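Q: Convert this sequence to structure tokens.
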Amino acid sequence: MIGFFGGSFDPVHFGHLKNAQQLKRELNLSALFLMPCRAPVHKEALTFSTKQRLEMLELALHDFPSLGLDTREINRTSASYSIDSLKEITLEFPQESICLIIGMDSFNQLSSWKGVQIFHQYCHLVVLARPGEKNKQNIGHFSRAKSPEELTRQKSGLIYFAQTDLLDISSSDIRGILFNASQEGKIPTQQSLDNLLPKRIINYLQIL
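A:
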């Protein structure tokens, strides 16, 4: 069983990386890939360019070698639709059960996603919730799984709400710190990003 953790990663941070690492253990995945989108359909314009986001992800994975990177969506020249990726992934990994991993904020918008009526034919859905986030979406054609072990017993069609204790960090929090930077574009000295971002990315941001 393998997982694909989609998102804009604008920028990638410990909330993505450490949560993904813990989730890989919780689900006992043989592989977990971060899958950045190129142009998210349900969000505002991104702060960092496609090139910058990809470079930061590559830097981050030096410190998180247990995670992988899937660039199919960020390499597209059009909007990113998860259903297109799921169809490709199931063809590439015909023997594997696929877990599509999304945050609760994305799950609560799921009914507006393209092709959501057939997602259950291609994957299990794994939902991550930050502290205080509530489920406002019905599970549609998915059936509820109460444990990760249940995901291994069928090819697709289950939804699992992860039990992993999540780091409550968001990319918008980090952008808020960066937007308060000096006119030279440096990270303000009174703000520390050490507990939010890998050092390699902090160094990268300082020279943008």
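Residues 182-186 have pLDDT under 50 and may be disordered.
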